[in-house]
TrEMBL record:
Organism: Phoxinus phoxinus
The keyword Transmembrane helix is annotated on this UniProt entry: yes
Bilayer-crossing regions: 22-51, 63-81, 101-125, 146-167, 189-213, 234-255, 275-296
GO cellular component, one term: plasma membrane
Biological classification of the source: Eukaryota, Metazoa, Chordata, Craniata, Vertebrata
The protein's name in its UniProt record: G-protein coupled receptors family 1 profile domain-containing protein
């Protein structure tokens, strides 16, 4: 029963009940996520990717970042069922995953988290550029491939050092190189720095610049080349939502880095509370793959039009639809 195995019948019944209550709460939250949030998030993430990639002509740079976030959300959707049905979350473990499965899930989770945080950071910085200089590259997608390659390649490369610590922490000590690197605290510290501290500083810097621009109204504010105001609200809301959902997870990494391994805690009640908060923070991180596509669907006015064009195109089949011909003519002119 998740972490309640450390208790026995001679222990204080209050601590045992607290542990069981924590396990029950996690089980309920996990089932709610799997029944409600998981299918909705999977559907809307896939829909966001398909609709935008099928309308590449009308994509803007914010759409590119949201597509990357949606792809990372799909990866999290694949990791979530295995993680939430594992022994850490449920009082009735459906399976005991071994080290290889754990490392694979950890690699996918870390890379997805980095892609989400980097996309969010670049989104806020580009939002400042678009506010300061309208009709810039943020309004086009000519560098889409470079942006996507930078985000995913950067996430893989920057997470390699921390992942090496995680891998060496779970392989045989017969490997001399890895026997010197069995330090999970170092891995968590690296992930905390590259996955949260650096993006948080960049986002705060972008917000300071954006507030400074808003205080200094210029004739450029009336430029028709600017993004729709609803997109501005979407960008700010998405950045705030991402940090709100991911901050608890990185705070648990900070606690693990500063306080050492959980097994070194003398008080088992503190150990149980730590594991509960750690699992709850992971669950909140999974919720980011559910909240962001819903926000994008509700706040982006162009998404419904793109979806309608895609449905009409599927309805027409191989024949060219009248609305497609008119759209192509407008783009050519």
């Amino acid at each position: 029963m998740w972490s309640c195995m450390v208790y026995n019948e001679t222990d204080d019944n209050v601590d045992l009940r607290l542990c069981q209550d924590f396990g029950l709460i996690l089980s309920v939250f996990s089932l709610v996520y799997l029944i409600v949030c998981f299918p909705v998030g999977l559907c809307y993430n896939a829909l966001l990717v398909v609709v935008n990639l099928s309308n590449k002509v009308t994509m803007t740079m914010p759409d590119v970042y949201f597509v990357n976030i949606a792809i990372a959300g799909l990866v999290l959707n694949l990791v979530a069922p295995v993680e939430l049905l594992g022994p850490s979350f449920t009082r009735w473990p459906m399976w005991e995953y071994n080290n290889e499965i754990y490392i694979t899930l950890l690699i996918l989770f870390n890379i997805s988290s980095l892609v989400i945080m980097y996309s969010t950071t670049l989104l806020s910085l580009d939002y400042y550029i678009e506010r300061a200089l309208p009709r810039t590259y943020m309004s086009s997608v000519y560098n889409t491939k470079h942006v996507c390659g930078f985000i995913w390649g950067g996430a893989v490369l920057t997470s390699f050092s921390s992942l090496l610590f995680y891998v060496c922490n779970h392989v045989s000590t017969k490997i001399i190189e890895c026997s010197k690197m069995q330090n999970k605290e170092a891995a968590d510290a690296i992930m905390m720095f590259i996955g949260y501290v650096v993006p948080a500083v960049a986002v705060l810097y972008a917000f300071v610049l954006i507030l400074r621009i808003r205080k200094e109204s210029t004739p450029l504010d009336q430029d028709s080349g600017r993004l729709d105001p609803s997109i501005h609200r979407l960008l700010l809301a998405s950045v705030c939502m991402q940090f709100l959902l991911w901050t608890p997870y990185y705070m648990t990494l900070l606690v693990h880095t500063v306080g050492g391994a959980p097994g070194s805690y003398s008080n088992r009640q503190h150990l149980t509370t730590y594991f509960f908060l750690r699992c709850l923070s992971v669950l909140l991180a999974f919720c980011s793959s559910f909240a962001i596509p819903l926000m994008y669907r509700q706040m982006n006015k162009n998404f419904s039009h793109k979806l309608q064009r895609l449905l009409k195109r599927l309805h027409c089949g191989d024949q060219s639809c009248p609305h497609e011909r008119s759209t192509v003519q407008q783009v050519v002119t």
